[in-house]
Design a protein that fits this description.
The protein is mostly helical and 102 residues long. It has one domain. Helix content is 75%, strand content 0%. The protein is built from 3 helices and no strands. The relative contact order is 0.09.
């Protein structure tokens, strides 16, 4: 793969990360128009955006720089696990930390 092809695939993945983040954040935004049960504030959207973009960019860095497939897989699983545990803690406070959402 040439440097130009690598650059193009990296740019494509960055675009996919940005579009995916926007689509995921649009779900609660649309739901808020139809029900009172979904009530996100601006800080909720900002927190979710930081988590999703941070995760996406961390995954991009792993894909770009880690060459061994075993280490790549391990790091990707760890990144996703951190995202899911952080999201769950913020949503319902499964660990009871001070930044829990409950």
């Amino acid at each position: 793969m040439t440097n130009q092809q690598t650059l193009n695939s990296s740019k494509l993945r960055i675009r996919i990360i940005l579009v995916s983040t926007a689509l995921i954040l649009s779900i609660p935004l649309i739901a808020m128009q139809f029900t009172k049960e979904v009530s996100w504030t601006v800080s909720d959207f900002l927190t979710a955006a930081v988590l999703l973009l941070g995760t996406g960019l961390a995954i991009e860095l792993v894909i770009r720089y880690v060459k061994t497939s075993l280490w790549r897989t391990i790091l990707l699983i760890i990144i996703l696990l951190i995202l899911f545990l952080t999201w769950a803690e913020l949503a319902v406070g499964i660990f009871g930390t001070s930044f829990a959402g409950s």
